[in-house]
Amino acid sequence: MSEIRSRKKFNAGEFTLGVHSWLTYIFLYLPMAILVIFSFNKARINAVWTGFTFEWYKVLFNDTALAGALVNSLIVAFISTAIATVIGTLTAIAMYRYKFPGKGLFDSVLYMPIIVPDIVMGISLLSFYVFIRFTLGLVSIIIAHVAFNISFVALVVRARLHGYNKTLDEAAMDLGANPFQTFMKVTLPLILPGVVSAALIAFTLSFDDYLITSFVAGIGSTTLPIKVYSMMKFGVTPEINALSTLILFISMILILISQRLGA
Q1: What does the pLDDT look like over 40-93, one tens digit per residue?
Q2: How many of the other CB atoms lie within 10 Å of CB of 51?
Q3: Distance (Å, whole) CA 251 – CA 190
Q4: Which phi and psi (to 5°) does residue 184 adopt?
Q5: Which positions ≥6 away from 60 have C-beta within 8 Å?
Q6: Which residue among 27, 74, 131, 133 has its CA within the 20 to 30 Å range from the CA of 11?
Q7: Average pLDDT, stretch 101-125?
Q8: Where in the sequence is the domain holding 225, given as residue range(s)?
Q9: Tens digit of pLDDT for each residue in 172-215?
């Protein structure tokens, strides 16, 4: 009787996984594949395939407006990732090692940027900038990205810290190392794969972000996602497909590296 029940549970789980896989293939991977294919289409209209060409990638690389937006996105992504990685890593270590009043509340607050909808965060940041009369630009975007990336970094690094052997730190200090030396020569090397993985995730989130950025961007601080959205108002062209293909390719590489390091 127990064998029959276990088989039923297994079959139900197998069915659920099968449905999930098919839905993912149909509504995620298939549209992505179509986007990639039509980025090589000769025709400017995506509805008809007229032949294979690299022309739209040439047009893409010669577009100075897109190049400027790309530079802005890279500046924001690199700076916000660096700041968020440092703060998020130190936050994760503090939350893992120490007990202090209000730790439970702080732990809950740490999840807020992940749980709160992006549109709410964007509106609240814009209201705050207006209230303090802060000029919108690349700096306002970087601050916004740091604000939501810290939580992602902290959670990834904390996952890496689970199972960490604290006696290694104690042994290093017994041998004469001070807390800073212990962190740099023992703690950091052991959690470095998790830190790099968190940094790659933060970079991907920052580079791809549109909604929050659209609220806090100022004149001359257009990022790549905002530029792409403005281009799509005139219709989806093979140039946009080519750009989306490159972004998809780079994002997939970063995520795969992140998962590899996290493992």
Answers
A1: 888 777 767 788 888 888 888 888 888 888 899 999 999 999 999 999 999 998
A2: 8
A3: 26
A4: -75, -35
A5: 66, 239, 242, 243, 246
A6: 27
A7: 86
A8: 57-262
A9: 888 888 888 888 888 888 888 889 889 988 998 998 899 999 99
- Res. 254: pLDDT tops 80: no
In a domain, 43, yes or no: no
Residue 158, Cβ density class (10 Å: 0-12 exposed, 13-18 middle, ≥19 buried)? buried
31 domain-assigned: no
Task: Confirm whether 88 is domain-assigned.
Answer: yes
Closest to 160 in 3D by CA, of 184, 182, 183, 188: 188
CATH number for position 147: 1.10.3720.10
Radius of gyration, alpha carbons of the chain: 23
Residue with tokens 């179509």: 34
CA distances from 192 to 69, 112, 163, 196 (A): 31, 25, 15, 6
With b for 16 or more beta-carbon neighbours within 10 A and e for fewer, the 70-105 pattern comes to bebbeebbebbbebbbeebbebbbebbeeeeeeeee
3 within a domain of the structure (yes/no): no
Helical residues (DSSP H) of 25-133, grouped into ranges? 30-38, 55-61, 64-97, 103-110, 112-115, 118-131
Q: What is the pTM for the complete model shown?
A: 0.80
C-beta separation of 166 from 173 below 8 A = no
